[in-house]
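Researcher: Go.
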Amino acid sequence: MIILGIETSCDETSVAIVENGHQVLSVATASSEALHQKIGGIIPESAAREQLVGIIPVLEEALLLFQPQTDPRQTLEKIDCLAITHGPGLIGSLLVGIETAKTLSMATGKPLIPVNHLEAHIFANWLEKKPDQFPKMPALALIASGGHTELVLVKKKGKKYQFSFLGGTRDDASGECFDKCARVLDLGYPGGPAIAQSAQEVPEKLINKAPFSLPRPMIDQDVLDFSFSGLKTAVINQAQKLQQKNLLNKEMKNFFAWEIQEAISDCLVIKTIQASKRYPIRSLLLGGGVTANRVLREKFQKKAKELKLDLFIPKVSFCTDNGIIIGAAGYFNYQPLPWEKVIAQPSLRF
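Model: Structure:
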């Protein structure tokens, strides 16, 4: 089955063509990240306007990459069905993709599959693998991104995958914490890569003799929830103290970034491992933009080896929002709806 996936839940505009849920045939993506870098965050209305401009060119590019020198309208005939993110996400952005997909479905008669964006991040772990390499069920999944930090139990009943929410952030998401902390330190946007880059430059002497430490909220509590607002507040307070003493120089910012990265990754790893010990799982899955972080991946690899867990981490390009993961999710949880019944659900959960 060949599925065309469309993703417009936030600031990316992405279209991909995926075969049988795991083979990537083409992908085209446009991002308004450069626009949002000017203020250090996403402006929903601006993101949606950029997506209105980009959706048709991105769609045509994905179709041309799939079948070069062929009219995109003829290439659409090779597509078996369409998959579209219908939530969660920014309402304006979701509508750009949904209305495009509904129009294509109405015009071509192709089935339309609404996809939960969070589920799609989980199915990124099936991409570019052979069927005998797919994650074994039941599995525990950590989704960590700019808007979400959640632990999910994944089971399979027949051909259908089922998802059970186990715990999540009570306030800020991990990616949101990265972004806001990077803004406090004036490191740039998006915050995750900016902090990771700065952390690489920290002098060894500061790591060995840390001038301060940041909290790891809730790691000692017997719940599978996260909290990052207290960590963000601690960063703001510590930065103000250092500024008052004229100590917030480049070297100190690099240590700051290193400690932020350590604190956030510790929280994610510790809580996920706690969950893995409560449930009889066969696989541990990661997904979402934050899981592209090298330090986080290394910590999970070390823990998984110690506990003999079968760990799956998507390659970095599959961690971010894109049409590929939407196409994969559309295949593995194939539940088409008539185009007129597909609506945006910005607060959709599991």
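Model: Residues 77 and 95 are 24 Å apart (CA to CA).
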